[in-house]
Amino acid sequence: MANADCVVIQGSNMAECHPVAYQWVTEAKARGAKIIHIDPRFTRTSAVADKHVPIRVGSDIVLLGALIRHVLETGSYFEEYVRAYTNAATLVDESFQDTEELDGIFSGYDPETGTYDMTSWGYDSAAGDDHVEQSSEREGDEHGSSRKERSAGDEHGSGGPSLEHAEVERDDTMQHPRCVLQVLRRHYARYTPELVERTCGISADDFAYLANALTENSGRERTSCFAYAVGWTQHSLGAQYIRTAAILQLLLGNIGRPGGGIMALRGHASIQGSTDIPTLFNLLPGYLPMPWAGRHDDFDDYIASIASPRQKGYWVNADAYAVNLLKAWWGDAATEDNDWAFAYLPRIDGNHNTYATTMGMIDGTVEGYFLLGQNPAVGASHGRLQRAGMSNLKWLVVRDLNLIESATFWKDGPEIATGEMKTEDIGTEVFFLPPASHAEKSGTFTQTQRLLQWREAAVAPPGECQSDLDFFYKLGLRLRERLAQSTDPRDRPLLDLTWDYAVDEHGEIEADAVLQEINGRFLTGEKAGQMLPMYSSMKADGSTSGGCWIYCGVYADGVNQANRRKPDAEQNWVSAEWGWAWPDNRRILYNRASADLDGKPWSERKAYVWWDEEAGRWTGHDRPDFPLTTPPSYRPPKGTAGIEGLAGDDPFVMQADGKGWLYAPKGLLDGPMPTHYEPQESPVANPLYHQQRNPARFVYPRPDNPSAPSAGDPGSSVYPYVFTTYRLTEHHTAGGMSRWLPYLAELQPAFFCEVSPELAAERGLENGGWATIVSPRSAIEARVLVTERMRPLRIGEQTVHQIGLPYHWGQGGTGAVVTGDGANDLLGVTLDPNVAIQESKASTCDIRAGRRPTGPALRALVEDYLTRAGVTTTTGNVRRHVDAVPQASPTPEDDSGDSDGDGGRYDEGDAAAGSYPADPREDEDEA
Amino acid sequence: MSGTRRTFLDWPVLRQVRSGDLLGRGAAVTSARTRARQPRTTTADRVARSVCPYCAVGCGQKIFVKDEKIVQIEGDPDSPISRGRLCPKGSASTQLVTSPTRVTKVMYRAPHATEWTHLDLETATDMIADRILETRRRTWQDTDARGLRLNRTMGIAALGGAALDNEENYLIKKLFTGLGAVQIENQARI
Q1: Last residue of one domain, picked from the residues B57, B75, B98
Q2: Contacts of B72 in chain A (CB under 8 A)
């Protein structure tokens, strides 16, 4: 970021939430870069930016879409980059229909399931019928409904979705009405500065300032970067927020270059690692999908669903990545004859996300629950739902440093206080196990730029504290011991797991041994036992094993590369010898795009990697993210697949066609291009369509999960204000690591709400006094902070007031220095369709002066509001808006695939282009 | 005050001149007690190189240990990410790990009980293993209604914190997958 000429921070309060990283923004500013902060609140970030632009929460796609329109209409996109490195010139199939034609839905929508058949979104194919036929037999026919159910969007954490092949129709003049650039132009035609003004509350002058700052600071000589955090992800269309920024950055030529990119500012020490080596229901390590019942029944089906052998790039070796994982887990029990023990993997058949799990607790299907440093009673949306779930478990294991609210809800939770629950009635058996802290165990964290850093244990854990690693290792030993004599086939996967890790002198498992297994090793030949150097050495024949292909190389040469600590002062600005970044220690992904078509840097100022003609290889400041000896002029023979299929001008090497996607014919479940919808709860009507909300979002219409009526619906005036939640520097998420610390607790002792002077006047709120905030889920109280940092926005004829709520406090818990009401109790559960992240950044409420009632009167207040608003389970939960025309879009006549050989009509799987990754966790990083 | 005898040279003005601390804000006004003090970082027995456990920036930390106790945690100036800096949370890490509120014993709440009791770690781990196997047995699904293979239990779930490291996530996912539990989730979803 220090190399950027313009930094736009949107959906993040970086100076406050990532203060130490913000030094690089400050450095960029000191070098003359322009810093712009776009946020509903004026924050510590705004205070040190060149400009703060207030925005209405939930309207970011309008603003970004208008910037896309601006660069297209003024011709200020980076033409050479766009034509060669993106899919701008590719033609879209005739059957595609845009939201602009169908009142807010794309073609292929099914209102019954709220999902899309993506068939019509694809490209015109230049391939023959035989290809089409093959694709329909494979994964090309997977409907959006099952992709949505398994949160398939998550799988693009290290590259785009598969395509059958890369032979597409192009128009290099980019004038054809069906080429992506023109499709994009039509889609965003209505995203004008005027629309921005009356939807986001941003003036035409501020818009012009932003547009000029970005276009003036992009191109050959200059680069701009975006930074975002959960202000973008936590929406019912969060993945599309990031997509919009990706399209804009591709148009401006700001991807794969120093000072460019889209920085995902992640919020927890190893949250990136928790995605790469996931504890997520739908993923296996390295973004391999969990198999789906009936669709991935055998290994070949499974591999075919990940990547076609005829597409471009590194995903064609998915079979090797999967075999290596299965060998790492099941060792000798995984053989070619038994499909590498693929049948041992349990199958998913629904969206088993954490919120669905909570509802499963309430409904009685989930009996036992492990909380590992997590405090959902305070930190997850709809705290009341979380506590109701946990109180209905048979058993609960909590591993945490302190007695957090999720460990003590049965004795001092808010529902005990209101009389809705009685301790004696709660049958949950609770085990509280103290863990080792970060200082008492070794291991690697992966930080927000994909960088792995090893921690050395400083001391042994105190008392009965034990690392999570050792706990699960020992638990595994016990479980295997108990079942050792079992002949039941269901126990084979557990008994055949490789579980023979090296232990230290205290009998505790060595984290180093686990990291080695993750890296992988040669199993046969002269090198048997040695560490694999890189994922390209992984074989699909069982001769190598490795637990996470993208991390292969972290133990190259038998050295823990994550433990490299060459001081900053002793190496160049890329700092390649500090820690280790996946993949292959690359610090900027897709960095071949930092050079022009001939392989020369776009400018000396922005030189990063380039083609060395004499040496016949790519070189530069970083590890080139490209086949090292493939020259810029290389064009593969027609039909060449895999790594050899990458042309010299295909920088996006993890993409099925090597190009950055301005339009995604596949991969996103709610549309090939981002389009604006209002949040689940909004006081503003969608100015573009009758369709108010994302028609593909996940809704949970249950009596315990009510939504407020939105603009135009009866009862919407009962919850007239917008609220958004956020973090403070002095606290950490649900407070388990901060509210128990006197140092931090005294810096931010009490829960408060931020309101504008205008709202305070409207509602009689006094600075320092109390306010009660009421949503359809709960009512909470907070100290009032009246501040001009909050500004009412003029949206058309309306004034929209926004309330800011930091969410670090909770009621209950033992030993916390400070307690308070939890802001997340106000939130409901509505999820993004791609990745099942909840919408927690934009909801509606009422606010009134004074403290909230206590005891049974609290629920009575909430119920009174619900009655007055006329809320039912269908409120806000109808997917296709009742006034929208048409109700459903016509799907192509034959949507069963093209196996009948209808000659070129497009089928989803025979498309031919790559995707710029769609996942909110997907990012372009740089050191 | 130390027992050393004072001489006229200790007169404040003379001290200021003698020590070069003309404004009397530094060495001239330092008490003997302060002078005798040394930073905990210089008297530590050893220093471990670590990483901050709060947000995802990944600031380098140096953990100072004396007599097998953590006495201080500071930013690591060698880190190209943080260049020695820590934010308020990172700076409070010493208190995070040495806090008196930190629970270091296993606690157990029996069903319907109103209070905690103590269990030893071995017993608790045994009991948890029992609960897992019992729930797994009771909720096992070989196939779905259509006869498609599932090989799993929907009775056991986990929600991980994002302070779990890679090795831990790996082992957790591996063990639960071996057990057939699929509802294994993380803060990363949230």
Answers
A1: B98
A2: none
Q: What is the pLDDT of residues A361-385, one digit of tens each?
A: 999 999 999 999 999 999 999 999 9
Please check whether residues B119 and B132 belong to one and the same domain. yes
Q: What is the pLDDT of residues A27-65, one digit of tens each?
A: 999 999 999 999 999 999 999 999 999 999 999 999 999
- Residue A527 neighbours by CB distance under 10 Å: 15
DSSP three-state, residue A800? strand
CA A826/CA A259 separation, integer angstroms = 39
Tell me: do B45 and B111 sit in the same domain: no
Distance CA A373, CA A430 (A): 15
Find where tokens 């506590």 sit. Answer: A387
Q: Which amino acid is at A420?
A: E
A374 and B CB contact within 8 Å: yes
Chain B interface mutation, best of A279, A329, A390, highest count of B Cβ atoms under 10 Å: A279
A373 touches chain B (CB under 8 A): yes
> Chain B: residue nearest A813 by CA?
B101
Q: Do A432 and B150 touch (CB under 8 A)?
A: no
Q: Which of A906, A836, A909 is nearest to A161 (CA)?
A: A909
Most A CBs within 10 Å, among B45, B47, B52, B57, to test the A interface: B57
Residues B185, B116 share a domain: yes
Do B78 and B124 reside in the same domain of the chain?
A: no
First to last CA, chain B: 57
Q: Which residues of B touch A380 (CB under 8 A)?
A: 190
- Sequence-distant (6+) residues with CB within 8 A of A263 are A1, A225, A226, A227, A228, A448, A923, A924, A925
Tokens 């100036």 identify what position?
B77
* One domain for residues B113 and B171: yes
**A742 vs B95: CB contact, 8 Å cut-off?**
yes
Contact (CB<8Å) B178/A428: no
CA neighbor of B77 nearest in space, from A925, A14, A743, A570: A570
Residue B5 structural domain: 1-37
Instruction: Judge if B118 and B185 occupy the same domain.
Output: yes
A92 forms bridges with which residues in the sheet?
A123
Length of chain A equals 927
Q: Tell me if residue B184 falls in helix, strand or coil.
A: strand
Same domain, B82 and B29: no
Alpha-carbon gap, residue A115 to A758, rounded angstroms = 42
Query: Taking 70 as the threshold, does the pLDDT of residue B7 lie above it?
Result: yes
Work out the number of other CB atoms within 10 angstroms of the CB of residue B122.
Answer: 12
Predicted complex ipTM:
0.93
Contact residues on chain B for A462, CB-CB shorter than 8 A: 102, 104
| CA A520 – CA A558 distance, rounded (Å) | 11
* For helices A204-216 and A60-73, angle between their N-to-C axes, nearest 10 degrees: 60
- What pLDDT is attached to residue A449? 94
Domain count, chain B: 3
Please give the domain boundaries of chain A with CATH numbers for all domains. Answer: 6-85+184-264 (3.40.228.10), 591-651 (no CATH)
Segment A494-535, tens digit of pLDDT: 999 999 999 999 999 999 999 999 999 999 999 999 999 999
Could you give the 3-state DSSP secondary structure of residue A619?
strand
Beta-carbon contacts below 8 Å between A and B:
473
**Per-residue tokens: A367:** 């009996």
CATH number, position B89? 2.20.25.90
Residue B61: what residue type? Answer: Q
Q: Assess whether B90 and B73 both reside in one domain.
A: yes
